[in-house]
TrEMBL record:
Residues 56-149 form the Methyltransferase type domain. One of its GO terms (molecular function) is methyltransferase activity. The lineage of its organism: Eukaryota, Metazoa, Cnidaria, Anthozoa, Hexacorallia. Pfam families: Methyltransf_11. It comes from Exaiptasia diaphana. GO terms for biological process: methylation. Signal peptide: none annotated. This is Methyltransferase type 11 domain-containing protein.
Length: 274
């Protein structure tokens, strides 16, 4: 069985195919990011725009969250520093967002001076971090009144056709000791709240997104999940079979041309405790 260190390595290995990740993962809803930026104190009517603030993004990947954040903050006088430990992700990020600063480092070794950033965000990645090391580092880098947010954008188990697929993946996550945010984000949030470095987490309103995807393209989305990337050939074959059967059954019942892929964007906010 993999331990936490193996999981962190898998997190890095699993995301090397940055182009595939970029193509198949959905974009974050602007509404959710706007609410978050306000709560982080980076936007809003009381914000003094003469003063430049800094937001550090951890695990930025190909910049899916960053580009929505950048558009929301476009005239807010906020410096965005993005980061990711994977070279391939940083390269893809530079191609996609050449005007935004990206640094190669992990959440456990943040390359930023003490108390130098006003906000830290981690979108769909905190579950990959080594907990204590990253919490200590985020706390160190944040200014005394700094805030920290975790966000996830995961497939919704409320979708009827997605449920059997999620149910198939669940034991694979267990078996390979990989944290699945869909099941574990509440535990992660509780752990941060209990860390004594941060206040109790405040949940922001969930935002649902719906994408209409042709059936032949839906598999690509699920094949970008770390648990599928890490599965054995036999597990991958069984997953594909279950996937095809589920989609066929659903389409023959509903007669829909496209499948509705539902995602939930969940965000939680923490304040630094001094
Ligand atoms: C699911 S992707 C999310 C990327 C982006 N934030 C988004 O929302 O699309 C997870 C990212 O976490 C990064 N990652 C994995 N381990 C990490 C660590 N220990 N510290 C920081 N980032 C890490 C991966 O390289 C990958 O880019």
């Amino acid at each position: 069985m993999a331990d936490k260190d193996d999981e962190a390595l898998l997190g890095i290995k699993g995301f090397k195919d940055s182009k595939h990740y970029e193509q198949v993962r959905p974009d974050y809803p602007k509404e959710a990011v706007e609410i978050l930026m306000n709560k982080l104190g980076l936007l809003g009517e009381y914000r003094d725009k003469a003063k430049q603030l800094t937001v550090l993004e951890l695990g930025a990947g190909t910049g899916k969250f960053t580009r929505v954040m950048a558009s929301v903050l476009h005239d807010a006088n906020v410096r965005i520093i993005a980061s990711d430990p994977v070279k391939e992700m940083c390269e893809q990020f530079k191609d996609m967002l050449p005007d935004i600063e990206i640094k190669q480092f992990g959440a456990e070794n943040i390359d930023a001076p003490e108390e130098s950033v006003h906000a830290v965000v981690a979108a769909s990645c905190f579950h990959w971090f080594k907990f204590k090391e990253s919490i200590d580092e985020i706390h160190r880098a944040l200014a005394p009144d700094g805030k920290f947010a975790v966000a996830w954008h995961f497939p919704s188990s409320q979708s009827i056709w997605m449920k059997p697929i999620c149910d198939f993946l669940e034991p694979l996550y267990e078996k390979n000791c990989i944290t699945w945010p869909l099941l574990h984000h509440e535990q992660i949030i509780n752990r941060i709240s209990l860390s004594e470095k941060f206040s109790c987490g405040k949940m922001l309103p969930n935002v649902l997104t719906k994408l209409q995807v042709p059936p032949e393209k839906v598999f690509n989305h699920f094949s970008s999940y770390s648990v599928v990337v890490a599965a054995s050939d036999d597990e991958k074959m069984k997953f594909k079979k279950l996937f095809d059967e589920t989609i066929k059954r659903h389409i023959s019942k509903t007669r829909e041309n496209n499948l509705t892929v539902v995602h939930t964007c969940t965000v939680c906010l923490f304040e630094k405790i001094i």
